[in-house]
């Protein structure tokens, strides 16, 4: 985690510090177990291929959303607060693919910062969304 960012430190158009993750099959299996997600497309390659028609098992959308929220909370620091978070899972990801989670500041007012957020594979946006965070202001300290 980096030093605490403050409301005054950012401007519209600023990018948050991105998080890049290559999800493994083990991570996916554990996430399925922790979330009681028994859908076989996340851990059974034969099922995913022969029954569902995919090339491989699929990275869970909620896992991608969790990693995106991690990128946001890492960026806002311990004194920041995630106020709103909304995403849409629009494309599939496979294990072993490098995924980047990040966002761009779209506006700010009264200590709140609005962002367009994303999960990308290369230039392809798999999961777009929006978020609002509250950042501490230097005058508050």
Automatic annotation (TrEMBL):
One of its GO terms (molecular function) is (3R)-hydroxyacyl-[acyl-carrier-protein] dehydratase activity. It holds the Pfam family MaoC_dehydratas. It comes from the Bacteria. InterPro entries: HotDog_dom_sf, MaoC-like_dom, Mitochondrial_HTD2. Residues 18-110 form the MaoC-like domain. Belongs to the enoyl-CoA hydratase/isomerase family. This is Acyl dehydratase. It comes from Mycobacterium vicinigordonae.
